What we know:
Elements: H1 2-21, E1 25-26, E2 33-34, H2 37-53, H3 58-89, E3 96-100, E4 103-109, H4 126-138, E5 142-149, H5 156-176, E6 184-190, H6 201-207, E7 209-216
Amino acid sequence: MLFSFIRTNVFKVVIFAIVLSGCQTIDPNTGESKTNNAVKGAALGALVCGIIGARDSGKHARNAALGCGAIGAGIGAYMDSQEDELRKSLADTGVSVVRDGDNINLVMPGNITFASSKAVIQADFFPILNSVGTVLSNYKKTAIEIEGHTDSTGSVSFNLKLSEERAKSVTDYLVSKGVQAKRIIHHGRGPMRPLASNQSAEGRAQNRRVEIRIRAIGE
């Protein structure tokens, strides 16, 4: 009897989550229909917390679903808004804005960041970092991870040192523009995390990059 009761309430929560996840919008950049991350967060939060609440009573299950759905939607909406601002400010700059759940990853190719074998920021990179810094300063409920990456040309030790110095240069610049230092960590990955094969010039060009990962941390 208890199993039947829980199963019934879980079913209700699943239906609630499906209804939420069915809400779709049109991506202005691609024209494709998509479920935004605020809705996905609400649906997932409702499903997980509703299952927990279902063990107690139908009322608790419903309240858990609604409450946790609201939390998930809040984080998702916050990151949705930040993503939209980043896409607008970085349009036509060569920077890729990649969304992964409630995380945002900015991929900045080497041709717009640093000169070969140097860790001094190129002049053309300053406006891009200014735009990123403005958005990051406005969205303080995020943690930031900055990674430097290289191709495999040269020694591993040289590339690790170079990538670390580049990540630090970006970190220092963003801090100078008002982004809180305590929100940022930085790493030099050298050639250890390639996006493409280092056997071709095109692949090596993809691997030379700086990535900025933005993660929601809530209140």
